[in-house]
Amino acid sequence: MAHVPAEQRRQQLVAAAFRVVAREGVAAASTRRIAHEAKVPPAVVHYCFHSVEELIDALMAAVFADVAEAAAVALRASGAVEHSLRTALRRLWGSYRDDPAGHQAVVELVAHALRRPAATMIVREHQCVLGTLAEQFLADLAVRNKTTWRSPTRVLSRFLISTVDGVLLNWLIDRDDAETEAALEWLAITLAAEAV
Fold this sequence. Notes:
Layout: H1 6-24, H2 31-38, H3 42-48, H4 52-74, H5 81-98, H6 100-114, H7 117-144, H8 153-174, H9 177-192
Helix pairs in contact: 1-2, 1-4, 1-6, 2-3, 4-5, 4-6, 4-7, 5-6, 5-9, 6-7, 7-8, 8-9
């Protein structure tokens, strides 16, 4: 086997772990399964990570960074309040439709982390990043449209993230596009009504 720098090998193993989790779930993410997916001997996994949990933590950090990056792109003010909200919500949902297995893996990784006190901070930091992005989006929207919000943006941003999470989780379960579009439309109208 050709020598590969440790950091590059770690990234290769994280990518392999993601494919395993997206296809088979967190429970399938064993050293042997990930090594097989990465086409390396199991010893390589142990060389790069002290444990499978450390590899899963690295996977969570990478996946949550990707989710935050996608959210940052989606949550951009682009005109009137309702239009911007509707556009942002469609962008967020679009990433789910493009990669449902990847987003199902995110849901599993969150649930997995909440059962491990050492990993709970990774999830909390991720939620904090998403909350900050949503709060900044709402603040930018208010400035751009010379308006204010009836409720504090920290409350509205939490409502926005929590509702989107629930609607998109429902979509992962039932794949009902029409109901999801209706729910996101309601959310855009409801939040826009908070602008004064």
